[in-house]
Design a protein that fits this description.
- By secondary structure, the chain is an alpha+beta fold.
- The chain has one domain: PH-domain like (Roll).
- The chain contains two helices and seven strands, in the order βββαβββαβ.
- The two termini are 21 Å apart.
C-alpha cells in the first residue's frame, strides 16, 4: 500500500512524496508555505489521480520520459521521476492511480 510522506525543505516549505508499496517515490509535489496547503495538495492528488486527463506525459530535453499530474485548473500538483522508457513512465502513472486514493499520510516534518 502506498503512502504520502510530508517533509520540510531546508527553505521551510512543506513537500510531499507519494511512495509505492515498495518504497519507491512515484510522485513529488511542489513546495507549500503551510502544512495545511500541503495536505490540500495531497487531497488534490487523491482526487485528480483517478482522471486520465489529469496526467500529462512529457519528454525532457535529454529524451527521458516523465509526467506531471495536474489539477482541474491546470496547475501541476505532482511530478514524476525521469524514466528510461515510455513504458516505464506509463507504469509510473498506473502506480499513482493505484496508490494515491487510499495511501496513508506520514508526517516527517
Amino acid at each position: 500500500m502506498g503512502k504520502f510522506e510530508i517533509k520540510k525543505r531546508k527553505n521551510g516549505e512543506f513537500q510531499f512524496n507519494l511512495k509505492a508499496g515498495n518504497g519507491q517515490i512515484i510522485l513529488t509535489s511542489e513546495g507549500y508555505t503551510t502544512k495545511s496547503a500541503c495536505n490540500n495538495g495531497i487531497e488534490s492528488v487523491r482526487k485528480n489521480s483517478q482522471d486520465d486527463n489529469r496526467f500529462k506525459s512529457l519528454e525532457a530535453k535529454n529524451g527521458k520520459p516523465h509526467f506531471n499530474l495536474t489539477a482541474s485548473n491546470g496547475q501541476v500538483i505532482g511530478t514524476s521521476e525521469m524514466y528510461e522508457s515510455k513504458s516505464s513512465r506509463d507504469n509510473g502513472i498506473a502506480s499513482v492511480k493505484k496508490n494515491a486514493p487510499d495511501a496513508s499520510i506520514e508526517d516527517l516534518s
